[in-house]
Q: What sequence folds into this?
């Protein structure tokens, strides 16, 4: 493939999701919009190599897609009387379409609320968002979620049928429903981010894309809706993503306290911290408190007393054993591993791999090598993620290099 | 677009409600139907007798078989329906969620073909 064609492909890939969102509004449904987008792409391949890429490729593609859709409807007109009306609607919708950027941004937002509609199953919401808003292929989504492309494709087809048949609207919900609906959208965005950040599989480029898309969507929501939780989630993702370069060394996980903090993205941390200061001035909520915890890990060190305070707040908002466990680990950093271990042991979560991992780490720090080894082994048995397995195996190997303390009694 | 709101609940719950609560639900339900009529959403609504009074029939090879009771033994059973007109699923869900019996049971909102 030559350079010119590669540039055209790149422009198209970047613009396609936005163009699709607008075509869905203009044409009133996924099917027609996808056909029109495909037709517009063929038209671009026809025109752009000779005439060059237009100054505003997005507007060009929207316009081409709309005309192609009208052509199709005219061709079908012989079979259906309803098509006159449809054609008129498309022309009308286009009258208000002055290629203005705000309308196109609004289209994306409308589409987020459609894809994250509570009437769709949660896994369908995620798949649809990645496919229709982030422009990932079915294969890429399948790779990210350790699923078969055909399963993802079926999930997306079913969701689209429901949107059409039950008439799920392409609209930002009214003020009455907005708070509940935003919660679902934020959950989906955070799932996308975590898939990129924690990554059960997939190439590192794909994972970076997922994080960038999640941050882009949160920014988009934030520009259009004044809601502290949106800012909280945006801050949380910016702060976590800022540590990306330090989190892995040669593909191996580096725990927070061993990270080279000079590698953290300081601009992103500054942006995240500014957002945290703004949201903490208002009411405390789930994402903003988590963001505040992330913001307490400063390049010069982590403020553990402050982190424990925020975990106390988080426990009031979201009383769960997992938050308790994270709090216990923070207490261990503040007051020493022995205090932390008492709290962790009280929690007793033998079915949760991170409980074993947390115990193992505290026992290791207390020099109780043999018990640490057993706890690491229990964690390893429950862990499927490869990088995490290698990390635990490395910890066990490190313990092996230290001779075990002499034991008073021989083991049975 | 028309949607059928199937109202379901567990009949045993009625006995556990505080005194007067059931009567209030019945009054609220009648008032809600009138409200939907005023707002132009109402097409039809009926309340059904208890599932014990149901008979399920099937036709196989030209022969009818009948069984006592509803076709599926579930805790929550269909107790009535409201057929509505709504602009889209958002509006239909809002109307369905505000059906008084949704407070003790559930409402299935299904588009009509």
A:
């Amino acid at each position: 493939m030559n350079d010119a064609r590669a540039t055209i492909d790149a422009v198209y890939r970047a613009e396609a999701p936005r163009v699709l969102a607008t075509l869905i509004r203009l044409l009133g449904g996924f099917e027609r919009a996808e056909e029109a987008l495909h037709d517009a792409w063929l038209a671009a391949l026809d025109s752009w190599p000779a005439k060059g890429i237009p100054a505003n490729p997005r507007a060009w593609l929207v316009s081409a897609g709309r005309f192609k859709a009208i052509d199709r409807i005219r061709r079908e007109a012989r079979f259906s009387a309803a098509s006159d009306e449809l054609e008129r609607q498309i022309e009308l919708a286009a009258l208000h379409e002055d290629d203005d950027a705000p309308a196109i941004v609004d289209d994306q937002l409308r589409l987020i609320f459609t894809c994250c509609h509570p009437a769709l199953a949660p896994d369908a919401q995620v798949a649809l968002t990645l496919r229709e808003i982030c422009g990932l292929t079915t294969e890429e989504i399948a790779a990210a979620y350790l699923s078969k492309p055909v399963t993802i494709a079926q999930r997306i087809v079913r969701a689209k049928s429901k949107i059409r048949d039950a008439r799920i609207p392409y609209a930002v919900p009214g003020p009455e429903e907005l708070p509940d609906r935003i919660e679902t959208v934020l959950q989906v965005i955070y799932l996308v981010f975590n898939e990129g950040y924690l990554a059960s599989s997939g190439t590192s480029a794909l994972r970076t894309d997922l994080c960038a898309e999640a941050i882009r969507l949160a920014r988009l929501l934030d520009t259009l809706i004044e809601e502290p939780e949106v800012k909280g989630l945006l801050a949380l993702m910016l702060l976590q993503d800022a540590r990306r370069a330090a989190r892995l060394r040669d593909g191996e996980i580096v725990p927070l306290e061993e990270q080279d903090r000079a590698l953290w993205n300081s601009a992103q941390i500054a942006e995240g911290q500014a957002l945290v200061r703004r949201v903490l001035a208002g009411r405390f909520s789930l994402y903003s408190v988590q963001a505040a915890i992330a913001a307490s890990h400063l390049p010069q060190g982590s403020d553990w007393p402050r982190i424990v305070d925020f975990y106390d707040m988080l426990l009031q908002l979201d009383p769960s054993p997992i938050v308790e466990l994270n709090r216990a680990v923070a207490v261990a950093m503040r007051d020493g591993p022995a205090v932390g271990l008492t709290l962790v042991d009280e929690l007793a979560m033998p079915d949760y791999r991170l409980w074993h991992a947390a115990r193992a780490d505290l026992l290791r720090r207390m020099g109780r090598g043999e018990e640490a080894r057993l706890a690491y082994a229990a964690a390893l048995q429950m862990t499927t993620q490869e990088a995490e397995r290698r990390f635990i195996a490395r910890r066990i190997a490190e313990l092996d290099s230290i001779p075990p303390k002499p034991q008073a009694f021989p083991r049975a | 677009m028309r949607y059928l709101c199937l109202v379901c609940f567990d009949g045993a719950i009625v006995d556990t409600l505080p005194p007067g609560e059931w009567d209030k639900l019945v009054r609220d339900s009648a008032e809600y139907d009138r409200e939907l009529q005023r707002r132009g959403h109402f097409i039809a609504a009926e309340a059904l007798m208890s599932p014990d009074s149901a008979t399920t029939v099937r036709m196989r090879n030209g022969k009818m078989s009948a069984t006592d009771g509803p076709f599926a033994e579930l805790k929550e059973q269909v107790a009535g329906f409201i057929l509505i007109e709504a602009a889209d699923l958002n509006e239909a869900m809002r109307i369905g969620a505000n059906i008084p019996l949704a407070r003790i049971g559930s409402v299935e909102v299904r588009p009509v073909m």
